[in-house]
Amino acid sequence: MSEDTSASPPDAAGQPDPLLVHITYGLYAVGFFSGITAIIGVVLAYVRRGDVRGTYLEGHFTYLIRTFWIGLLGGLASVLLMLIGIGFLLIFAVAIWIIYRIVKGWIALADGRPIPDPETWL
User: Fold this and answer.
1) Shortest CA distance to 75 belongs to which of 44, 121, 67?
2) Does 1 have pLDDT greater than 60?
């Protein structure tokens, strides 16, 4: 029987290669200027999360998926609330929250650390 080659090849320590997670964080970061890259990033996270199940990279993909959906909902709520003025403050807060999560997650990934609680709000 042949080995499944769809998963990321392991690195020297036997862990899956974090390159795709780095790419996904990058797509999210560029998503601030071109929203389509964040959509590509979340699709990539959904597709590849199963390939890294049981490794520290799985938490990073879960964290990224939650960042996308919560950020999208916060952004939509902000747009609706712009009709009464408070949306301008909320969209700024949502942007800061997304930037914080991208930076926090990317630093943890660069250090080879898992996200302690990928389903947290911060």
Assistant:
1) 67
2) no
Task: Give 34-78 pLDDT, tens digit per residue.
Answer: 889 999 999 999 999 999 999 999 999 999 999 999 999 999 999
Give the C-alpha separation, 72 to 88, whole Å: 15
What is residue 9's three-state secondary structure? coil
What three-state secondary structure class fits 10? strand
**What 8-state DSSP symbol labels residue 82?**
G
Tokens of 100: 């914080």
Q: Helix 56-81 crosses helix 35-49 at what angle (to 10 degrees)?
A: 140
pTM, full prediction? 0.85
Q: What is the DSSP letter of 104?
A: H
Residues 6+ apart with CB under 8 A from 59: 114, 115, 118
* Cβ pair 105, 66 in contact under 8 A: no
d(CA 92, CA 75): 9
